[in-house]
């Protein structure tokens, strides 16, 4: 479908040539069906009429490691300075990455795929994740904007400090943040990379299956581990796309 087209649902016409964010809320109960009918184009839509807000929604993939890997190193170094050995640091970082994979699955399944039908519910869902399902090949909206990540880091770090010790919290958080960086870079690669080896090829097929075939299964991005644990692993037999 070309961007010049209009889409009609529940008596409302979505004009794809105009900023979308404040249109999609009018779709009501039809939003869920509309947002899961993907438009496969590398050209992304416009979200806002304001150039400032539009700029904040667009992020190149390489910005994520450029911004956050130094932050990861700083947090891990804090635990090193506090006297932890290399094996201890490694264990803390790996633990942080593992916790992130569970958080990745949980957010994707229960928040990013929440069912909405109100104006503001649809609007917020579209900004959060719906836009990615509607325009899955939009390369500038595949990774999370650093400004939004920075805001979310504060409560997550404070939570880790509450449940761990002062010397282990930085490395645990650094590991979780490293897991996030791996997730965002992997997610971009699964959409735009051309893997040649078996593991990334299977992971790409697994994720695109979530987009184009069974959207209520396969919530893992960096692995299918938690889908196996929680019973949301998609079947290998072709099936009708779920909405």
Automatic annotation (TrEMBL):
Pfam families: FA_hydroxylase
InterPro entries with a match to the protein in the record: Fatty_acid_hydroxylase, Scs7
GO biological process, one term: fatty acid biosynthetic process
GO molecular-function term, one example from the UniProt record: fatty acid 2-hydroxylase activity
Residue ranges crossing the lipid bilayer per the database entry: 61-77, 89-107
Keywords linked to the UniProt accession: Endoplasmic reticulum, Fatty acid biosynthesis, Fatty acid metabolism, Lipid biosynthesis, Lipid metabolism, Membrane, Metal-binding, Oxidoreductase, Transmembrane, Transmembrane helix, Zinc
Membrane topology: Multi-pass membrane protein
Cofactors, names only: Zn(2+)
Highest taxon of the lineage: Eukaryota
Localization (cell): Endoplasmic reticulum membrane
Fatty acid hydroxylase domain ranges (all copies): 94-232
GO cellular component: endoplasmic reticulum membrane
Entry's family note: Belongs to the sterol desaturase family.
Protein's name in the database: Dihydroceramide fatty acyl 2-hydroxylase FAH1-like isoform X2
Gene source species: Coffea arabica
Gene name linked to the record: LOC113707656
